Amino acid sequence: MKKILIPIDGSDYSQRAMDTAKELAALMDSRIILLNVMPLYVYPLKKTPKFMKNLDFGYQESEVSKDAQAYLDESKESFGELADKVETVLMDGDPADVILKFIENQSVDLIVIGSHGIGASTLRQMFVGSVTSKILKYSAKPVLVVK
Questions:
Q1: How far is the C-alpha of 9 from the C-alpha of 41, rounded, in Å?
Q2: pTM score of the predicted model
Q3: Which residue intervals of the chain are DSSP H helices?
Q4: pLDDT truncated to tens, each residue of the chain (147 aa)?
């Protein structure tokens, strides 16, 4: 396994996915791609990603981008000795669609994703979040879901 993609959004589940992928990458000497997709909608305040805690009505898109990139950089550094094998990518759009398009256009061997992200809140998403569900359904690559 040469490349592992980890979509991250600041949720506890994406942190768990990163932790699992770190172990896999260390065992298999894999490269890692941390992908953060900034959605085109605003999160409810109680579910705001950690890197967007200062969100208010005056918060500009460029500030959100800076915070998201800082979150990616911090996440990369959390890989310690493996950090030199980690690439960070920041994109915007619908998270599931962007992740699927990224998978189509990049050479990745495995996707490690949290079972739920920031937006998972409804009863129908109790077992698997909507982004993860869509990735599982449409990805041509293997997907490891971390609870």
A1: 14
A2: 0.82
A3: 12-28, 61-77, 95-105, 130-138
A4: 999 999 999 889 999 999 999 999 999 999 999 999 988 765 544 455 555 555 554 445 667 788 899 999 999 999 999 999 999 999 999 999 999 999 999 999 999 999 976 554 444 444 456 899 999 999 999 999 999
Collapsing DSSP to helix, strand or coil, 76 comes out as: helix
Range of the domain at 37: 3-146
Q: Which structure tokens are listed for 108?
A: 């990745």
Report how far residue 43's alpha carbon sits from residue 12's, in angstroms, rounded to the nearest whole number.
Answer: 16
Which residues, in sequence order, are bridge partners of residue 112? Answer: 144
Report helix, strand or coil for 145: strand
Place of tokens 């990224």: 102
